[in-house]
Amino acid sequence: MLNGAQMAKAVRGRPRKKMARKAPLPVKRKVAPALSTSSDKFRTLVSSLTTAELDELIRVASGRKNEELASAKASFLDEVRAKAASLGMSLAELVSLGAGKLAPAPKGGKTQLAAKYRNPKTGETWSGRGRPARWLVELEAQGRKREELAI
After folding, report:
1. pLDDT at 73
2. In total, how many domains does the chain have?
3. What one-character DSSP code corresponds to residue 99?
4. pLDDT at position 24, please?
5. Cβ(74)–Cβ(87) under 8 Å?
6. What residue numbers bound the domain in which 142 lies?
7. Which residues in the chain come in under a pLDDT of 50?
8. If both were cysteines, with which of 31, 128, 134, 145 could 116 make a disulfide (CB 3.0 to 4.6 Å apart)?
């Protein structure tokens, strides 16, 4: 004779699975990150310095940076002189080659537009763009036309 649990198995058509015990996962311990980049090394070194030591470090580092820039500029200038000499040119000729070109207009800044209208009494001008000048609106209210005020 079948008991209740055995009947449930038979009714469902498959035997129950036994739960297997899983081994506990190993505990991951936090390890201090290895200093892999030079910037990390510098940060740890600098974090232990006093204010006076930091000021001295900045002074020495900026002096070293200026020396490196001066050296790089000098070597570049020597390289350009040598290249120009191989082509039979002087540095003055190289500099004057770009003198005929205009510099591009600055982006985003206000540009001065040419005036289209002039106030005959005061000499004030208006470019014709944007809101009309107050003097122009007043003269138009008196019956003057813009064409009369055109430059």
Report:
1. 96
2. 2
3. T
4. 73
5. no
6. 117-149
7. none
8. 128
